[in-house]
C-alpha cells in the first residue's frame, strides 16, 4: 500500500457517500410516490387469547408493494420515513386503512396499530385519530395503539396527557417491544398502559433458558399488580405457547397462530361486513 492510499480512500469514501445519498434520495422519492399512488398495503397478523386460543384481533403491519423491488418490509423504510417526516402521511394511511378494514370484521375483534414517536410530535394527532374512527365507524373500544418506550423518553408530560385523552374515548394502549429499550419499570407505573407486549427476543430463548422464564413470570406478576395485561410476541412453536400459558400471559401473537396476511386472505368465522368492501 502506498502513502497515497489515504487520499484514494477519501475519494472512494466520497463516491460511496454520494452513491449512498443518491440511493437514499431515490428511495425517499419512491416512498413519496408510493404514498401518493397507494402502493402501501396493510397486512394483518392475529393475536389470540392465550388460555382459550380464541382470536381476539389483528395487528396492522405496513408493507410497501414496490413496482420493481417487490414487497418491502417495514424495517427497510420506516426509519427513512421517520427521518423525512413521511411517517406522518404514511401513519395516517395505515390508521385509516386499519380502522376501515376492522369496521367490517366481526365486532368482537380489535385492531392494533403502531404509532411512531415522530407522529406523537404532531399537534393534530388526536384529531386525526378521532376522524379516522368517525369516518370508518369503528368504535374506539376496538382500537389499540401500540407505542414503544422511546415515545415516553421525550416530552413525558405532554405524552402522558395525550395518552389519557386517547383512553378517555375508549382506545386501549399497548407498550410494544417491552424489554428491548431502556425498560425502566417506572414507565409502567407512570403511563396509563392497558397492555405490555413482551418482545420476541425473550420468547425465542424461552424453551432453553430458564432465565427467560423468570423474566417473563416477573413481567406477568408486575402487570397484574398494575392491572395491565401481557402479550407474548413472536410465538413460533407449540412448546413456547404451552410454556407461556403456564407463565400466565394473557395474549399470544406469532407465526404459530398466523403470519401477517393481506386482508383478502383472512377468514372470518362470522359473516363479516368486509365482504361488502370486496364486492364494492
Ligand atoms: P412490531 O410492532 O413489534 O411488529 C411485530 C413484528 O414481528 C412484525 O414484523 C411481525 O411480522 C413480526 N413477527 C410476528 N410474529 C413473529 C414470529 O413468530 N417470529 C418472528 N421472527 N417475527 C414475528 P414486521 O411486520 O416486519 O414489522 C416490523 C416493525 O415495523 C414492527 O414491529 C413495527 O415496529 C414497525 N411497523 C410495522 N408497521 C408499522 C406502521 O404502520 N407504523 C409504524 N410506525 N411502524 C410500523
Ligand atoms: Mg407492534
Ligand atoms: Mg413488537
Ligand atoms: Mg418492533
UniProtKB/TrEMBL annotation:
Looking at the record's lineage, which domain of life comes first? Bacteria
GO molecular function annotations of the record: kinase activity
User: Is Membrane one of the keywords UniProt gives this record?
Assistant: yes
Q: Which organism is it from?
A: Bradyrhizobium canariense
Tell me the compartments it is located in: Membrane
| Portion of the parent chain present | 517 to 796 of 796
What keywords does the record list, in alphabetical order?
A: Kinase, Membrane, Transferase, Transmembrane, Transmembrane helix
Q: Where is the EAL domain?
A: 24-274
Q: What is this protein called?
A: Histidine kinase
Q: Does the keyword Kinase apply?
A: yes
Its principal location?
Answer: membrane
